[in-house]
Structure formats: structure tokens, C-alpha cells
Design goal:
single chain, alpha/beta, Spore Coat Polysaccharide Biosynthesis Protein SpsA, Chain A, nine-stranded mixed sheet, three-stranded antiparallel sheet, about 25% strand
């Protein structure tokens, strides 16, 4: 096998339809299955990366490539990467933020389909990829998406994906539960000027361009609440307004809805400062 190396020592251990050195000393040969690249972006997250790696390595699906893009971590994250032979390719260098790193992951990936399972995120169970790609209904589609489990700390909740036609109202699914054709991600890379909403921008642009979406009634990923877009909700909403305004012609009702969303975010953020955590958790449970 001819290993490809970059100047930082990252090694690609994938050739054709074969994944070599899966950590158990065995060689797996796969035929007839589309290669799925799972891209993990990480920076100084030594406490959570291992569970993400193990989740991807445990998938029963026969043709998976794991790519890790690290932002020059200094907390032991690189030791975890080096010690996991199930990783097919890794790169560690400074980047311009999470979406810049995700674009680098697309460049490094060789799969037909790409999923972004960032550090700390996991697949809902070991059969997710097998369940998704055993459905031949995805043939001819550009983006496949499913449901997500959100961990709020004290409890977990399954959130069903919304209807793609309601995209003006916000992201209708978690990006960790999305599989995008690599060709689309190459031609429509993430716009890094959107610091917390570039994934939404990507999906909106794909929708406007007439790309085909396919929903699978499967819980794809399990993620923790409190991500960047959750914490910076006002900024993320402002970015979404910019994205929609630049991509679509908005009606008066669309503009009113976006204004109302912004007001609701400001009010809810203030309310959270007043009400106890148990009440906020109760509201999340019944929503």
C-alpha cells in the first residue's frame, strides 16, 4: 500500500475500497458499498474526542473513512489521535475556525458521502450508517438527513427533523445528522465569514440551487446542547437573517417572522437569567 503523507506527519491509511489496520490487526475488504467519510473537527478536547472515535470505529457499516482535522491542540488531544489506529487520516495545523477546519476535512476526505461528527458528538448507535445506507432511496439524492438526540445534561430528548420547505424558519436538522455528497461540499464550501451559521448557509444555498434532499426516519446522532450556535444565539440569528436576505427574496411575512424570532431569542435569554435551571429543563422537556 502506498501511504500518503503531509509535511506534519499525518498519514492516510485508505486505499480504494479497503480500510487497512482497523486497530484489531485485521484487514477489511469492502465491495458494493458507498464510502462514507466521517470528518471530526477538534481543538483542545482531550476529554471528549475518544468517545467520538470509538463511536465511529464501532459502526457496523462496511465502508467508513474517519478523517480528523485538529487545530494544533496542546492538551493531549494529539496523543489520542496518534493512539487510535482506526483513524484513516489526520491533520493538525492552525485554522481559521470550525468551518475552515470542516472545509479542510472535505478536501482530505475521499468518500462519496461526508458526515461531520465533531469532537464530543457520537452516532446514536452502532448501526446508524448501515441503517441509512441500506436504504436505496438515497440514490440520486444530494443530501440525506435524519433525527437527533440532544443531551441537556439532566435529560436527553429526541428531536425530529423538520420539513426542508420550512428552512426559512431555521435549520431543520442537526448538521451532525446530515450526510452530504462530497461533490456538493467541494463546489459549495462552507462560507467562513459566517462564524456560527455557515452550516445553515450551506444548506440554504443547496436548497436554492435545487439540490435534492432525502429524509430518513432514523436518529442519526447524539449531541450535547450548548454548542457555539446555542450559546451565541443572537449572533447566529443575525447571521441567518443575512443568509436568507442574500439567498432569497423575502416577503413581508418572512421579514416579520424573522423579526419575531429575534425578539423571542432576546426575551428567552433574559428569562433564563430569572428562572431556575429546573424550570428551564422542564420547558425543554415539554417543547
Amino acid at each position: 500500500m502506498s501511504n500518503k503523507k503531509r509535511n506534519d506527519g499525518a498519514v492516510l491509511r485508505l486505499e480504494g475500497g479497503k480500510r487497512l489496520g482497523d486497530g484489531n490487526g485485521s484487514v477489511k475488504v469492502h465491495t458494493g458499498l458507498p464510502l462514507v467519510s466521517v470528518v471530526t473537527v477538534v481543538f483542545n478536547d482531550v476529554g471528549n474526542l475518544q468517545r467520538t472515535i470509538e463511536s465511529i470505529a464501532s459502526q457496523t457499516y462496511g465502508n467508513v473513512e474517519h478523517v480528523i482535522i485538529d487545530g494544533c491542540s496542546e492538551d493531549g488531544t494529539l496523543d489520542i489521535i496518534r493512539n487510535n489506529l482506526s483513524i484513516d487520516y489526520w491533520l493538525s495545523e492552525k485554522d481559521g475556525g470550525i468551518y475552515d477546519a470542516m472545509n479542510k476535512g472535505v478536501e482530505a476526505a475521499t468518500g462519496e458521502w461526508i458526515n461531520f461528527m465533531n469532537s464530543g458528538d457520537v452516532f446514536f448507535n452502532a448501526s446508524v450508517l448501515s441503517d441509512v445506507f441500506s436504504d436505496t432511496g438515497f440514490c440520486g439524492k444530494d443530501l440525506i438527513y435524519g433525527d437527533v438526540e440532544v443531551d441537556y445534561g439532566g435529560f436527553k430528548k429526541i428531536k425530529k427533523a423538520g420539513v426542508i420547505e420550512y428552512l426559512k424558519q431555521g435549520m431543520q436538522f442537526s448538521h451532525q445528522s446530515l450526510f452530504a455528497a462530497r461533490s456538493i461540499l467541494v463546489s459549495t464550501p462552507f462560507d467562513v465569514s459566517y462564524r456560527t451559521a455557515a452550516d445553515y448557509d450551506f444548506v440554504v444555498r443547496a436548497w436554492v440551487e435545487g439540490r435534492s434532499f432525502h429524509y430518513v426516519s432514523i436518529v442519526v446522532s447524539s449531541i450535547s446542547s450548548g454548542g457555539v450556535s446555542d450559546v451565541r444565539r443572537i449572533s447566529s440569528h443575525q447571521q441567518r437573517v443575512r443568509i436568507l436576505s442574500s439567498s432569497l427574496t423575502l416577503s413581508v411575512s418572512d421579514k416579520f417572522w424573522l423579526w419575531a424570532q429575534g425578539v423571542a431569542i432576546v426575551v428567552s435569554d433574559k428569562v433564563k437569567l430569572i428562572f431556575p435551571i429546573w424550570l428551564s429543563d422542564w420547558i425543554r422537556k415539554i417543547k
